[in-house]
Amino acid sequence: MASVSYEDRQYPLLPGETVLDGLLRQGVDVPNSCRAGACQSCLMRDANGKPPAASQQGLKESLKAQGYFLACQCKPETDLTVLDADGVSARAAAHVHEITMLSGDVARVRLECKSTFDYRPGQFIQLVRSDGLSRSYSLASQGKRDTFLELHVRKIPGGSMSNWIHDEMAMGDEVEVRGPAGDCFYIPGRPEQPLLLAGTGTGLAPLYALALDALHHGHTGPIRLYHGALNPAGLYMVRELMELCAEHPNLTYIPCVLSAGDDCDPAIRIGNLEQMVMSDITNFADWRIFLCGHPDLVQSLRKKVFLAGAKRKEIYSDAFVMRTPESVTALPTSVAVLR
Question: Where are the domains of the chain?
Fold first, then answer.
């Protein structure tokens, strides 16, 4: 008879009983609704990352890869250690290893963790200052292939964390990182599938990490990376990305701005990013899509690519929501809170 370990307690399951029914029977309050695996309100996560395959039916590949499962469909044959879907999986002390400027208002921050901190390129973490101030930032680094965590931080007027990072953070400063979270990362398995990566501002960070990870895993299908800004000053890593394209013929980098002067680099396209994407690609039926950056872009482009044939489970997004005093403290893991 299998049992479930949850919040430091052990709950035995009856033969053939689901994780949801077993926990509810023993007085554990687990969110649930349809009991048929459709609403996903009972989503939980196996700490060991190996829940029964039947309990993951209908989930995105990124959720499966992180060990998420539907408690109402999970009938384990061996013991499970489970976490809430939104539970923080790790914490690690870190120190600032490097701070460099990528553009006039975007800093590259590299952190070294004092213990192992596992993540997938493209996810985001919560950065916690010594006084408890915390903000979420996407990772541009390459997981176990890098010895550091790399963040791209734009200086936001009035931003408590971003202004501290740009004006006061120093080499060796101690911070804490928590997470990771988010499902904007590459899943190997369909190397020929075309990938669309589109984002604005520092939304480039997770997309850059994701593109490198896909190339590392031998992805052979076309990878189209669109990065948008108001003007050329808002772009960064342009030369580095163009050099990467020269090394990998299946990667196309499209920097685009809404306005530019006569001396603008001819490689930079002028116009609306959404319109360019929808004009360049007319049928998204076979595409895997990753959208990061400004929430208006993410929401609008999600709808447009879906209406143009993209499968809902093939659309991954990370909307960068600015922190305000009225912001709620708990947000879905698909939302990164900045400032």
Answer: 3-84, 90-181, 195-338
